[in-house]
Specification:
Its main location: nucleus. This protein is an alpha+beta fold. The chain is built from six helices and eleven strands. The strands form four sheets. Strands 1-7-11-8 form a four-stranded mixed sheet, sandwiched between helices. The protein has a three-stranded antiparallel sheet with strand order 2-5-6, with helices on one face. Helix 2 packs across helix 4 (171-181).
């Protein structure tokens, strides 16, 4: 299962858009929940006039059996105090559906990084203990950087470290709940700021592709991903015509 966190810059959601559009995934259902703000709109992945008027809602499920991949796309923010009920419902669904692994695409405020997090790549990962046993070695081979823990009380007690993901939405809660429930989950995130987050989305989806090889490519570039038609309405003026 691949899904986004509703986090700073909507980077995870944009990256999921690129996966669904590029792999031409089939919509197989909806994820009904009262934890998200209700919404409805036209088909964000329309390829012709015939399917442009299909309706989409706030949480939908897409599938690609050939890659044993299911994607949950979330398109609206959470209702106040509904984070925990959503996480419980989602993880219950994950277990009942027998999803082997969950990959959560997220982001975190760049301006709230500590000194250590300022070094090197702005991309980070987290693995639950159950997944660490299975793929920890692969992450080392890829030379990825694990999300650093930060001082719980900076300047007072720097020895006590905690996981801190500012701007990450449900990321930390979903990750810690997965750890306690024995669910294999990976979090891939990028430090970023609000604004034009298209480059951040490309960076995150390329990061994902380094590991899962959703599309075959010797060099990760933005041109290998298919831009959804809905992006023209939001970002059209900022995208080169060659991307359409």
């Amino acid at each position: 299962l691949l899904q986004p966190a509703v986090s700073v810059g909507n980077v995870g959601q944009l990256a999921i858009d690129l996966v669904i559009s590029t792999l031409d995934m089939t919509k197989v259902g909806y994820f009904y929940t009262d934890c998200l703000v209700p919404m409805v709109g036209n088909n964000p992945y329309a390829t012709a006039e015939e399917n442009s008027m299909e309706l989409s809602i706030n949480a939908e499920v897409y599938s690609l059996p050939s890659k044993k991949l299911v994607v949950l796309q979330i398109r609206s923010p959470f209702i106040k105090n509904k984070y925990r009920p959503f996480c419980q419902t989602l993880l219950s669904w994950v277990k009942s559906s027998k999803c082997v692994r969950v990959v959560l695409l997220s982001s975190s405020h760049a301006y709230q990084r500590d000194d250590e997090q300022l070094l090197g790549t702005p991309l980070r990962y987290l693995l639950t203990p159950d997944l660490e046993k299975a793929v920890g070695g692969i992450m080392q081979e890829l030379n990825w950087k694990e999300m650093e823990k930060v001082a719980a009380y900076p300047g007072i007690n720097d020895t006590e470290k905690v996981l801190h993901i500012p701007g990450g939405g449900i990321t930390k809660l979903l990750f810690t709940e997965s750890c306690s429930k024995g669910i294999q989950m990976a979090v891939l995130l990028k430090f970023c700021s609000e604004g034009d987050n298209i480059p951040d989305a490309f960076a995150l989806v390329n990061y994902l592709n380094e590991w899962l090889q959703l599309i075959k490519s010797e060099v990760n570039t933005s041109s290998q991903w298919k831009i959804p038609s809905s992006w023209r309405l939001l970002f059209g003026s900022g995208l080169p015509p060659a991307l359409f």
